[in-house]
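Table S2 (continued). Query chain:
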Amino acid sequence: MSLRLLRDMLANSLYHKIVVFICITILLSMINTNIAHAAVLLCRSPGYNCTSHSGYRGQSTWGYSTHETGHNCTNYAAYRLAQNGAANPGNLGHAYNWATKARSKGFTVNGTPEVGSIAQWTTPGHVAYVEKVTPEYIETSEDSYLPAITLQKRYYRSSDREWPHNFIHIRDVTLLPRIGIVQNSIASVKEGPLNELWTIQARGVKSIRLSGNRIVVLNHNKELYAKEGPTNATWIKIADNVDKFDISGNRIGVLSGGWLAIKEGSLNENWVRVADNVTQFSLSSSRIGIIKGGVNAFVKEGSLSALWTLVYNNANSISVTDNRIAVIGTSNNLFAKEGSINNLWTLLINNTKTAILDGDRVGALSYGDVLYVKEGSLHTAWVNVATAVTSFDMSKSRIGVISNGMAAVKEGQLGSLWTTVADSVSDLSL
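Corresponding output:
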């Protein structure tokens, strides 16, 4: 296209029409029912509900256009970068030019997603913000035309047709690992290395759970509070009369009087009741597992409105990830399965009191208070990692235990040494 022609187009206000066409085209290709199996639509709204978790309301950042609708994919990407503390890299132009221009300015552009990086499609042109990265998928948020529709999607690595062409690393988010404890009813969190100092978060606390940049606590009045972002963020009361709770990614679940309710997305989202007569449950970003009636294990996969599937009879407890399910039967035997929820069970170990799944690790606490962990295949050997264990937690490369009131954490290999991080601890979360 000649410069003269481009000037003529701009003079005739065709510039925005071209941008609209580009964004419409890319989004139509993503939503097309023929390829919808490759990308799961998590959220769709004509307003800002899908991007409310970030505080985005269509305001212009770094001079990017908000279009007449108030929506623009490049403006949203710029907003999230600025939110992460990125300095203005200078206008990167159309979405289809972002990778080329960012590379020319010295920024890393590659095929590796990171939280905070910008997913970019060169043809016909689109950018989105990477919210989450797992071994199986990435999750993005975006603000786009079609018209004025904001979307949040999950993209699977196996889908080459919809996988972004590039990932632009202008200001990736470095999420420091966190440890949360309850010590004499005081909730504290440390972030970073194991020898970092504790920061008091709340008092009168019964239990604490961490996930990403979220902290959730249950106090002795059965009130549930949550915060996200830095450790000094403001608490938000999200539920009353809570008996038990769990958190995974952008999901929070509460058990109250046998009713299980889940909220998904921002902390201000509405609760959705998904089951009754529930005695125990577990969450992942795409699965919910429950013990119903104290005996039967059910799992649902996908949206909160998905149907339940009976996976095991006579179970005491359940733990789920996006790729694995584990149950402890009434005979205290631990079983697990991998992949489809309809796959066969594998007996892992006997005499199990509690079990946790995390990535390719399985943790099993015996009735003799011995903690066993295996990593990799379900068929690998168990490793005895600790004795006299009251409770434990696992997250990525860390394992935490409470033993005689002392909290200790190890990171890296299963044979790594333990580091004592606190005493008089009643609850621990990684």
